[in-house]
Every structure is written in C-alpha cells, then in structure tokens.
Amino acid sequence: MRLVFLGPPGVGKGTQAAKLSKEYGVPHIATGDILRAAMARKTPVGLEAKSYIDSGKLVPDDVIINIIRERLGEPDTKKGYILDGFPRTIKQGEALSKMLDQNREKIDRVIYFYLNEDELVKRIAGRWSCPACQKVYHTINNPPKKEGICECGTALVQRKDDRPETVKERLAVYRNETSPLIQYYEGQGLLSKVEADGTVDEVSEKVENAFQKSSS
Ligand code: ADP
Ligand code: ADP
C-alpha cells in the first residue's frame, strides 16, 4: 500500500496518516516531521531548512527529494508507506514517479483532503504537538488528557510557523505551488477527494472507503 496524502496545511493529513499507519502497519513518512527533527538536531539540512520553514516557504526541491530518496531506501518501506506532505510541487511529483519507476513500483492512491479556509485556520490555531514523539493535539477538538503534556510525558509546543502571519503565506504557497498536483494526479487516474470535515474517525472512514474502492 503506497499512499500519498495531499492537501492544505492544517487539513488533518498528519492526524489521518498517523492513525492509518498504526492500523495498516506501514510507516508514516512526513517530510515536515523529518525537517523539524533535523532542525532540532541542527544538522546541515536542518540549518538550511530553518529559514524556509520559519517564513512559510517551501524548502528547495533538491533537498526534499534527497531526503525522500534516502527514506524510501529504508527496509521498513518495503510493504508500503503513507507519504504526508510530499510531493508538494510538480517537480517533486515527477521525481517520486522516477524513483518508483526504477523499482517497478507505483503509487496506489493519492488522497486529496479539502476543507474551507476558515476551518483550516481554526485547526492550525489550536494545534499543539509533541517535540519528542510528534503526536498532534488540538486545544478544543483533541485536547491531551493532561493540559499541555503529551501522553509520552513531554511538554507540548506550538509550531513557530503556525503563527497567523506565517499561516497566510503557507496557504498562498499551497495554492500556487502544491495545488497543481491535484490535476497532475487526477490526470493519472490516481486521485480520490475527501472532504476533511467531521470528526477524526469520520474522516478516516472516508479515507479507507476511498482507497479500498480503488483497490477492489
Ligand atoms: P496537517 O498535517 O494536514 O497539517 P494535522 O493533522 O496536524 O494537519 O491537523 C491540524 C490540527 O487539526 C491538529 O491540531 C489536529 O489535532 C486537528 N485535527 C485533525 N483532524 C481533525 C478533525 N477531523 N476534526 C477536528 N480537528 C482535527
Ligand atoms: P503542514 O502540513 O501544516 O503544511 P508540514 O509539517 O507538512 O506542515 O510542513 C511544514 C514546513 O516544512 C512547510 O511549510 C515547508 O517549509 C517544509 N516542508 C515540508 N514538506 C515539504 C516538501 N515536500 N517540500 C518543501 N518543503 C516542505
């Protein structure tokens, strides 16, 4: 099972990918999480990515494509994976196709999540995440059992790029650079559209219907 989760920031891709990854036993590969971990460790990639991430811009394609090439070479990806937040440009989409072609593999389905912008902004405004295990919460929709503390015991943090001024930029970047991928995958007959309203469980039911229908 090779899935791509596509959609604007805050739509719930990460939440859904984490849930499905547990259910299906395939890794959840989120380029945002990989970059934030690299930033925390101050690796060369992390140091290069920081200014792009903090200002809401995309990290250059070649940096991201190298990260994905390495990650997809790991043995745990043999049974499949869920890509969350990659590809984010047509160039990244083409690079992914090439990588898969070389191994005679293909993407099974691209799930495109959509939601109105007011709701996206509310989801992002309430997002708190764990810097240790990456689990994501929402102050109102999905609060942690103990306020401000992850189930793993670590203090939750709010992402710097979730500040309102950066969110505006990220939504514009999504419209200009990422949304062309919707047509790109629609043209390949791979796209399923899922409206991401409703509870987390309601959305995951829609996702599972979308890819089970496509694989039957
Ligand atoms: P993305 O990975 O697309 O940026 P996240 O999965 O991080 O989105 O979700 C953004 C925020 O919205 C998080 O705070 C998350 O807890 C919350 N959230 C996710 N799915 C839902 C949902 N179905 N209903 C309400 N809130 C949600
Ligand atoms: P969200 O789902 O809320 O948009 P992510 O965690 O996926 O957030 O991404 C956070 C930031 O990391 C992006 O704004 C961008 O700077 C960088 N990033 C993540 N994935 C990519 C990618 N595939 N290409 C370029 N930049 C990326």
Give a written overview of the molecule.
It contains nine helices and seven strands. The chain is an alpha/beta fold. The longest helix has 16 residues, at 200-215. It starts with a strand and ends with a helix. The relative contact order is 0.18. One adenosine-5'-diphosphate binds next to α1, β6 and α9. One adenosine-5'-diphosphate is lined by residues 9-10, 13, 31-32, 35, 52-53, 56-59, 64, 85-86, 88, 92, 161, 170.
Could you state the oligomeric state of the chains shown? single chain
Structural class: alpha/beta
Low-confidence parts: none
Could you tell me how far the N terminus lies from the C terminus, measured between alpha carbons in angstroms? Answer: 13 Å
Helix content: 40-55%
Output mean pLDDT: 95
Radius of gyration: 16 Å
Which compounds are bound in this model?
adenosine-5'-diphosphate
Largest sheet: 5 strands, parallel
User: Which percent range describes the beta-strand content?
Assistant: 5-15%
So how many helices? 9
Number of strands: 7
Strand order in the largest sheet: 2-3-1-4-7
Shape: globular
SSE layout:
Layout: E1 2-6, H1 13-24, E2 28-30, H2 31-41, H3 44-55, H4 61-71, E3 81-84, H5 90-102, E4 109-114, H6 117-125, E5 127-129, E6 136-138, H7 164-178, H8 180-187, E7 191-195, H9 200-215
Parallel strand pairs: 1-3, 1-4, 2-3, 4-7
Antiparallel strand pairs: 5-6
Helix pairs in contact: 1-9, 2-3, 4-5
The protein binds adenosine-5'-diphosphate (ADP) (2 copies).
One adenosine-5'-diphosphate binds next to α1, β6 and α9.
